[in-house]
Amino acid sequence: MNYNKKSVEDVEVRGKRVLCRCDFNVPTKEGKITSDKRIVAALPTINYLREHGARVILCSHMGKPKGEYKPELSLKVVADRLSELLGVKVRMAKDVAGEDAHRLASELQDGDVMLLENTRFEKGETKNDPELSKKLAELADIFVNDAFGTAHRAHSSTAGVADYLPAYCGYLIAKEVGIMGKALADPERPFVAILGGAKVSDKLNVINNLLEKVDTLIIGGGMAYTFLAAKGCKVGKSLLDAEKLDYCRDMMKKAEEKGVKLLLPVDTVVAKSFPDPIDGPVEVCTVAAEEIGDDVMGLDIGEKTRELFADAVKSAKTVVWNGPMGVFENPTLAKGTIAVAQALADSEAVTIVGGGDSAAACEQLGFADKITHISTGGGASLEFLEGLELPGIACLEDK
Ligand code: ADP
Ligand code: MG
Fold first, then answer.
1. 14 is known as an active-site residue
2. Is 38 one of the catalytic residues?
3. What is the crossing angle of helices 378-385 and 171-185, to 10°?
4. Which pTM value belongs to this model?
């Protein structure tokens, strides 16, 4: 994939109607926004467009309305919050690309901002229906994508609309693609990738691509046990993707052939059962990776592994981390994740964190401002690392 994409700065926007896809998929409770982080994150692009005289038509999805109008998923709350943040009235369309949207769009003056209704109120959105893409395109002269979190989806408002309009990236996507694209295409070395978390089968695919790029690959968290099992260890009741054992063996072989150092846990924290509730009390002990009993499950990396992984991070110049090292939601099982987050925070390297839970862990643990880049897209950053083409980025004009 070409990571060198034209941005809002590479096109004249003055007097033009600009359809800007944002990520306003904000959490709400009883009709109130509980975190406006994503709205705040979109401000640089919106401000740039306004300051340069564009007529700004914002759009986003929120939740999963499945092609139907759902009052509780209306973006009206976002328009109100945006109005406060921008200090100007953001007009809210009653529909996505219907009559009301067209009327409001035609009334826009230079520097004005409006917001379309939740794109997923339209059935065509997630099907990337050309009819909807065309209707969206008719609202504007230029398309700007600034929603990295949905860039891996080929939907009408994330990619389809670019079939009918010249398309550019906003600052958020430019940053994501700039930092992660550089890490993949031309990293400062040593390049260390750390994988963990629970979505084992999803993430195993990333390994194949990362082995082409990295000097060291670290595998912890729920992913590690499938590898340990592939090496012949018993893993008891730990997470295991039994269908991927051969794949893991292939990956270990590939690592050896490529001279990539592959680090697996040497010890692990085990418990008799998964804590319930997840942050409730849990009785644990630490065992060597080869000595996991039949009646226990591995829920965090052990102390020796924490040191091993932190040491590998210490000498790195680029670090990519996706997926917690253990069930970090439980304080007893968070030590591995804290150790890795601490190692990244202490490192001088370019450090990149992707994945919803890993990002949340960094923030909860207070390490976020010591990380070079925390990706805003879980699934999108993973597909990026996998080397897949992201439709929402591939559709943008090349530089
Ligand atoms: P991310 O969102 O960062 O991509 P995932 O969604 O893949 O990460 O995984 C996060 C989850 O993995 C966390 O909820 C954590 O509790 C869980 N997890 C980590 N290690 C283990 C383990 N050994 N066994 C079971 N679950 C685990
Ligand atoms: Mg997750």
1. no
2. yes
3. 30
4. 0.89
